[in-house]
Amino acid sequence: MRFDQRRAAQAALRMLSLAAGAAFGQGSAVDEIAKYRAALQDGNPAELWEARGEDLWKQKHGPKSASLEACDLGLGAGVVKGAYAQLPRYFADADRVMDLESRIVWCMGTLQGIGEADAKRGVFGSPDRKSDMEAYVAYVTSQSRGIKMNVPLDHPKEQEAYRIGEKIFYFRGGTHDFACATCHGEDGKRIRLQDLPNLTTKEGAQKAYTTWPAYRVSQGELRTFQWRLNDCFRQQRFPELIFASEASVALTTFLARNANGAPFDAPAIKR
Amino acid sequence: MPDPMKIRANVVGDSTEVKVLMSHEMETGQRKDAQGKTIPAWHIQNVTATWNGKTVLSAEWGPAVSKNPFLSFKFKGGAKGDKVQITWIDNRGEKRTDEAVIA
Fold first, then answer.
1. A158-207 pLDDT tens trace
2. A5: pLDDT confidence band, cut at 50, 70 and 90?
3. Does the beta carbon of A43 lie under 8 angstroms from any beta carbon of chain B?
C-alpha cells in the first residue's frame, strides 16, 4: 500500500515536471541557446583553427615544395579576401564549378603536386588527428567575414550545378525516405532542441549558410559547411557524400546561392 | 610545440582587460578510449600572466577546465604599448609562452 502511494506520488511529480517543461516551451530553450552562443562568442576557439590555417596556407608543402599563397580562389591568384563569399563558381582552368574545398584540392594538386587522393584524406578532423583541410577552410572563410554573399550564376555550368543541387535537395531516398527538404523545407522544425533552418526561404538559407564553419562546443572541433552536409546525409541514412564530388559541389551551389545578399558571418560558434 | 595562444589586451578605464584563448586538449583522466583503456590526464596546470615583467595573475588549473580554454581577466594599470605575456605549463611539462601588446 505504502509502495503504491509512493509510486502514485512519483507519477504525479513526473506529470508536474512534464507540465512545467511544456510551460517553458520551445521559445525559452531557443533563447537560452542564443544566450549561450553570445556568451561564448567572445572567446571563440575557431580562431585557433583560423591561425593554424593561415600558417599552413603560407607554408611550403608537397613534392613541389610550394605554399598555397598563389592559389586562385576565383578573384585572382593570391586573393583570399572575400573569395569565399563568391564560391562555388565556375573555373575556366578546371572547366567545372568548384566550391572552396574542391578548389583547395585543385590548388594542392597544381601548385604543390599533392595527388587528389592524398589531398582528400582525413579531411574531417578528430581529437587524435587534426585536419589540415578544416584549418584551410577556417582561414579562407575568416577572410570573408562581413562580406555579402554573392555567388554567381552566370555561366551555364553554374546554372546546371544549381539545378542539380536543387534536385538533390528535394530528392527523397534512403531507408527513411528522407530528403533534405523533409527537415529543412518548413518553418518551425527541430531536432531535439535545435531549431532547423527552413532552407527554402531566403532568411533560412542565409542564416544557415553564413554561420558555417563553426566551432562545435559539444565536439571540441571546428566543423565546416561540408561537414554539415555530410552529417545531414548520415542522419538521413543516405550514402556518404563524396568529398568535393560533383553532387557535393552542386548542393553547396544551391544553398550558397540562396544565401546571396547576406553578410557572411563565420567561423562562428555553435553548441 | 603546442599551437600559439590568441591574446587580446585592451585598456579599459584605469585597468587592462586581457582575453586569452589557448589551444589545449585538457584531457581529464576520467575518460576511456574505444578499447576501454583510461585516457591519461593531460591538462594545463599553471598559468601566469606578466605585465612588463611583473606577475599580475598566477593560477593553478585542473581537469575541470574545458578544452581550448578561454581566460578573461583584468588588472589595475597598463598603458597602450605595454607588453602582456602569458605562459602555461601542462602536467607533461609542456610549455607555451605568448605575448601581446596592449591596445
1. 999 999 999 999 999 989 999 999 999 999 888 887 788 999 999 999 99
2. low
3. yes
Domain assignment present for residue A133? The answer is yes
* Residue A202 burial (CB count, 10 A): 14
Cα–Cα distance between A5 and B24 in angstroms, integer? 52
CATH number of the structural domain spanning residue B79: 2.60.40.10
Chain B residues within 8 A of A42 when measuring between CB atoms = 19, 70, 72
Tell me what the mean pLDDT of segment A10-33 comes to: 52
Position A166 in a domain: yes
Give the total number of structural domains in chain A. 1
Among A43, A51, A220, the residue with its CB nearest the CB of B4 is: A51
A105-117 tens-digit pLDDT: 999 999 999 888 8
For residue A173, how far is the Cα from the chain centroid?
22
Q: Which domain holds residue A163?
A: 46-270
Residue A2 lies in a domain: no
Domain that holds residue B84: 6-28+38-101
> Which residue in chain B has the smallest CA separation from A39?
B70
Contact with chain A for residue B31, Cβ under 8 A: no
Q: Residue B19 domain-assigned?
A: yes
SS (H, E, C) A3-40: HHHHHHHHHHHHHHHHHHHHHHHHHHHHHHHHHHHHHH
User: Is residue A23 assigned to a domain?
Assistant: no
- Structural domain count, chain B: 1
pLDDT in tens, A137-154: 999 999 999 999 999 999
C-alpha cell of residue A217: 562546443
Evaluate if residue A18 carries a pLDDT over 60: no
Find, in chain A, the residue whose alpha carbon is nearest to that of B71: A43
With 50 as the cut, is the pLDDT of residue A224 above it? yes
Of A42, A45, A220, the CB nearest to B19: A42
